[in-house]
Amino acid sequence: MTSDTKRYIALQNLYQNAAKEACSKVTTRVHQHLRSVGKSIDLIPVSEIRRFCKNSAYLDCISTRPIDVDLGSCEDVNHEVNPLMQCLQQAGESDLENLLNIYILFLAADTFFALNQKYPGDCNTKDCESDLSVLKMCVSNLVSKLNGNTSPSHFAMPDELIEEMVRFGASEVHSVASFVGGVASHEVIKLLTSQYVPFSDLFVYNGISCSSATFKF
User: Fold this and answer.
1) Residue-averaged pLDDT of the chain
2) Confidence label for 76 from pLDDT (cuts 50, 70 and 90)
3) Contact yes or no for 95/204 (Cβ under 8 A)
4) Environment class of 101 (CB within 10 Å of its CB; exposed 0-12, middle 13-18, buried 19+)
5) CA torsion 205→210→216→217, rounded to 10°?
6) First to last CA, the chain
7) Is 84 buried (19+), middle (13-18) or exposed (0-12) by CB count in 10 A?
8) In sequence order, which ranges of the chain are alpha helices (DSSP H)?
């Protein structure tokens, strides 16, 4: 491929003219919208519109969901299947399924806390046995609610995960706290600097298998 200065400048002018035309159209639409809502066209400076157009290829809109939507039944959120349960179905027999199971266990642990004012396993050895059965009931009730008050035939929480949650006893493992804190700080830096795209919705980390994943419901 060969070129010369004349052709290069001509091609550069084509791109610049196309960018100016696109920016002019966006400016017109912005001014029309401002007038329609009774605002002055000076509310958004032309320089800001140009900056927006220049960086529009790198913009991303993130719309997160409140946790109470995840906890709602399929009727509450107008879905045939709750998005969390649908995501669990699509994960299949994989490590992703285990990560989603861990998330469901944490939600069930919150339900356990609301009932008992303590987390499962935060007790002596004798009480931990009863905590195990109560936590299983919390998991069953939660999944039934997410599935429209019916028990899904495809779902079965592994007993070893429930036992591990009780054994965990709401403790804070230093290595896990350090890792999760590092992840959170990275996301804060993204927001503060407006560089890169933060992950949306759910991040789950499994300290046993050293695996993690993000989920968008």
Assistant:
1) 82
2) very low
3) no
4) buried
5) -60
6) 47
7) buried
8) 5-36, 46-55, 67-70, 83-91, 95-116, 125-146, 159-168, 174-193
CB 33 within 8 A of CB 27: no
pLDDT at 161 over 50: yes
3 state SS of 170? coil
With contact defined as beta carbons under 8 Å apart, do 89 and 82 qualify? no
Q: List pLDDT tens digits, range 60-69.
A: 888 777 766 6
CA distance 49 to 52: 5
Q: How far from 122 is each of 69, 107, 126, 207, CA to CA, in Å?
A: 28, 16, 11, 20
Structure tokens at 137: 């009931």
pLDDT at residue number 77 = 46
Average confidence (pLDDT) over 171-196: 90
| Torsion angle defined by CA atoms of residues 74, 75, 79 and 80, in that order, rounded to the nearest 10 degrees | 80
The token pair at 121 is 């396993």
The long-range contacts involving 58-67, CB below 8 angstroms and separated by at least 24 positions, are: 60/197, 62/197, 62/198, 62/200, 63/200, 64/200, 64/201, 65/201, 65/217
Of residues 158 and 77, more confidently modeled:
158
